């Protein structure tokens, strides 16, 4: 009986063992990415530059993947709220964050952050750069940068400029302008640039700075008057508006857009996302749409964004130190 039992066990082993390799491929198969909608968290309000760009990019990726990119707008504290939220998400590759110059500046000036922007977020792709537009309410009696400087010096502390929040790029743009021109203007922080623009049009503040995609509709409609652009040279979309550097030597501030994911996200997925984003960004139709928004498309891969972030950290740190903006 013992022998029969042993033979039965050996016979079962012969029958069962060949089944294991046959089951393994099906068991190991992973669903193709993406097999569900992707969440893209932005630290700006609806209607802002990052919001506009995110939705255009989302359309391109939907055409490639057949999955929606859900833009989750979480404005506040110059993008810091969005970073905290993104870092709490499951790092499965289905949550991305729009990393902009605004958040980069904020992490250089705000104290006691719950995250390390340089270590807690993995690069996906660098989308492009864009200038800010310095705009005033049409009722403000200035039509040029020299006139704005003269008015500010005549009435120190009386002119107010709005920004997307303390420590945001718009705030730093204003701080650099006042320090480099020897003027004194009052900074008024908002939870998003859309609100700052609205209050500039309403006359609650006299001027503001906004990236080209958010600024141009209001300039074209005449509701706001463009005085200057923050890039080192004139912007193609506003060729008659001078660069601030034409009157304030060495003045320059650029906004930029990139995609990152919380640390722990699978490298294989991020590599796939990076390749598809770069492909979408470099497609002629994407470039034309963003040229119309004033965005200079770059389309950098993960390694290129890593290098760009390192360079920006050094540059922004130097600007913040020189400007005196420090909340730490």
In short:
The protein is an alpha/beta fold and 328 residues long.
Which helices and strands appear, and what pairs or packs with what?
Layout: H1 2-16, H2 19-28, E1 38-42, H3 49-65, E2 69-73, H4 80-88, E3 95-100, H5 101-109, H6 117-120, E4 121-136, H7 145-154, E5 160-163, H8 169-181, E6 186-189, H9 193-202, E7 207-211, H10 212-220, E8 225-229, E9 254-262, H11 267-282, H12 284-291, E10 296-300, H13 302-323
Parallel strand pairs: 1-2, 1-3, 5-6, 5-7
Antiparallel strand pairs: 3-9, 4-7, 4-8, 4-9, 4-10
Explain this structure to me?
The protein is α/β, with parallel strands linked by helices and 328 residues long. It has two domains: 38-130 and 254-323, 3-Layer(aba) Sandwich (D-Maltodextrin-Binding Protein, domain 2), CATH 3.40.190.150; 131-246, D-Maltodextrin-Binding Protein, domain 2. 46% of the residues lie in helices and 20% in strands. The protein has 13 helices and ten strands. The protein has helices spanning 2-16, 19-28, 49-65, 80-88, 101-109, 117-120, 145-154, 169-181, 193-202, 212-220, 267-282, 284-291, 302-323; strands at 38-42, 69-73, 95-100, 121-136, 160-163, 186-189, 207-211, 225-229, 254-262, 296-300. Strands 1, 2, 3, 4, 5, 6, 7, 8, 9 and 10 form a ten-stranded mixed sheet that branches. Helix 3 links the parallel strand 1 (38-42) and strand 2. Helix 3 (49-65) crosses helix 11 (267-282) and helix 5 (101-109) crosses helix 13 (302-323). It is globular, with a radius of gyration of 25 Å. Residues 10-28 have low confidence and may be disordered.
